[in-house]
Design a protein that fits this description.
The protein contains 14 helices and 13 strands. With 376 residues, it is of the alpha/beta class. The protein has 2 domains: 9-40, no CATH class; 50-280 and 337-371, Rossmann fold (3-Layer(aba) Sandwich), CATH 3.40.50.720. A 7-stranded parallel sheet has the order 3-2-1-4-5-6-11, sandwiched between helices. Strands 7-10 form a two-stranded parallel sheet. Strands 8-13 form a two-stranded parallel sheet. Strand 5 (155-161), helix 7 and strand 6 form a beta-alpha-beta unit. The longest helix is centred in the middle third of the chain and has 20 residues, at 185-204.
């Protein structure tokens, strides 16, 4: 029996999907809570809503902007640094607003009159300096949050990352685990960005939602589709410990489904939500899926200690030559991680289910790669 569960904005408990003893609710109880949520906080229609998407020329932002405009009938604007790269957005009827996440004045203009702002702009490169990453991921988020407050934006949906947990090696990490700083620049920047938005929520009344995505793959993904395929093709994949460690997938359309709901569901305001498919895939199976597309079925392996030693050597050599190495310690940590993230809270609060499993996601990914000419 569930007791002591509170619903609604600031009253909403992050332990909502658990019993007071910390035990996970049964599927039946979760269904009842979903029904209660839906009846008490019905989804807001996005039809006609004026929505701004930052990072709209990027992988996730582009897919999200298209979905909002084409399927949700929202009035969508895209903040872009270089309008010449956004012709495909303009052709679909999306308003193009020149601006930059580091330019506070451009953000005020872009945020003016918006019902919802989706913030997907980020510095995601593994080799950026702390100053470069911080300028976009932390100070850029601060600029956008201030613009939303000043222009009375109805809601800010921030695309965060499960990296806020600092690669804690634990299974089924949920939102009760406190984000932590570890010295890894990208991870720490996402922690600080969340601090910025939740401070604005608590102190200044801005409605915010933080969507913590896991590892996003699928149509157009640079890191977990295009680069993965190229690495397989070039023979650069070396499985760490036989590829037994875990990829934590979220298929792009599953993520976009959840992001749309983050803009609709009232009970999500003030919350951080893990957005993940809720499964783990051994890296050997992940790369094997791409290998099957191009006839590669054998990958070398190395123990983690050897991979870390080689990565350290490559980083030193890269610094001397002025060229970053593609095999670095950050990459080794990624491919030797044994953790996972619970999506129970997102499923409950958003009434959301990841509808595309890994097998179907890879089938769709392969079809897209063939259509786009990446498979010959």
């Amino acid at each position: 029996m569930i007791s002591g569960i509170r619903f609604g904005n600031a009253e909403y408990s992050t332990n909502v999907w658990a019993t007071t003893k910390g035990e996970v609710c049964t599927p039946h109880t979760l269904r009842l809570l979903r029904l209660y949520n839906h009846a008490t906080f019905p989804n807001m229609s996005l039809q006609g809503k004026r929505i701004l998407v930052t990072g709209a020329t990027g992988f996730i932002g582009r897919r999200l902007a298209g979905r909002l405009q084409q399927e949700e009938a929202a009035v969508v604007a895209a903040l872009v640094r270089n309008p010449s790269r956004a012709d495909y957005l303009a052709d679909s009827g999306i308003e193009i607003i020149p601006g930059d996440i580091t330019d506070a004045d451009s953000l005020r203009r872009a945020a003016r009159g918006r019902d919802i702002v989706y913030h997907s702009a980020a510095y995601v490169g593994e080799q950026g300096s702390r100053e470069e990453v911080w300028a976009v991921n932390v100070e850029g988020t601060r600029n956008l949050t201030e613009a939303c407050v000043q222009e009375n934006v109805g809601r800010l949906v921030h695309l965060s990352s499960c990296a806020v947990y600092g690669s804690l090696q634990q299974m089924d990490i949920d939102e009760r685990v406190t984000p932590r700083l570890t010295g890894r620049v990208y991870h720490d920047s996402k922690v600080e960005a969340e601090t910025v938005i939740f401070d604005a929520h608590q102190r200044r009344g801005l409605a915010v939602v933080s969507a913590r995505a896991s590892q996003v793959y699928g149509l157009g993904s640079p890191q977990f589709t295009l680069r993965a395929l190229q690495a397989v093709r070039d023979g650069k994949v070396i499985l760490i410990d036989g590829g037994k460690h875990f990829f934590k997938p979220i298929y792009i359309d599953n993520l976009v489904d959840a992001l749309v709901k983050c803009g609709q569901v009232e009970a999500a305001v003030g919350e951080a939500l893990n957005i993940t498919d809720g499964v783990v895939i051994p890296w050997r199976d992940f790369f094997a899926a791409f290998g099957r597309m191009i006839g590669v079925d054998d990958f070398p392996s190395a123990p983690r200690w050897a991979a870390m030693l080689m990565a350290t050597f490559n980083e030193t050599k890269g610094k001397l030559r002025g060229r970053p190495s593609s095999l670095n310690r950050e990459v080794v940590r990624t491919f030797s991680s044994d953790n996972s993230f619970s999506n129970a809270k997102a499923k409950l609060l958003l009434d959301w289910e990841p509808s595309v499993d890994f097998s179907e996601g890879m089938r769709r990914t392969e079809a897209w790669l063939r259509t786009e000419g990446h498979l010959g």
